[in-house]
Amino acid sequence: MKNHTMMECLKLISPDCGKKIYIIETAGLAVLQIILLLAFFKTGTDVSEIQLTTVSSLAFVFAEIVIAYISTGGFASGKGSYTIFLRTSSKTDKILRSAYKADEIRRLIISFFIAVLNFTFTASCNSDINIISLIYTSVFSIFSLYISVSWYVYTVRRLEKTYEITLVMLSLPFVYMVLFNLPISYILIHASPNDSGLVCALSIVIAAVGEKLILRSSLKNTLVNYYGGRYYG
Amino acid sequence: MNNCVEIKDFIKKRKNYEVNIPKLQIPEGFATAFIGENGAGKTTLIDAIAGIDLSYSGTIKYFSDHTLTDKYVRENIGYTSSVSYFQPHWKMRQIIEVCSLLFENFDKEKFIEICQKFKLPDNKSVAQLSDGNKMRLMLASVFARQTRLLLMDEPASPLDPVMRDCLCEMIQQYIADGNGNKSVCFSTHNISDMEMVTDYAVIISGGNVAECGFVEDLKEKYIAVKGEKSCADAAKKFLYSFSGGNYGFEGICLSEDADKLAGMDVKLETPSLHQISVAVLKKCGGDLS
Question: What ipTM does this complex have?
Answer without folding.
Answer: 0.72
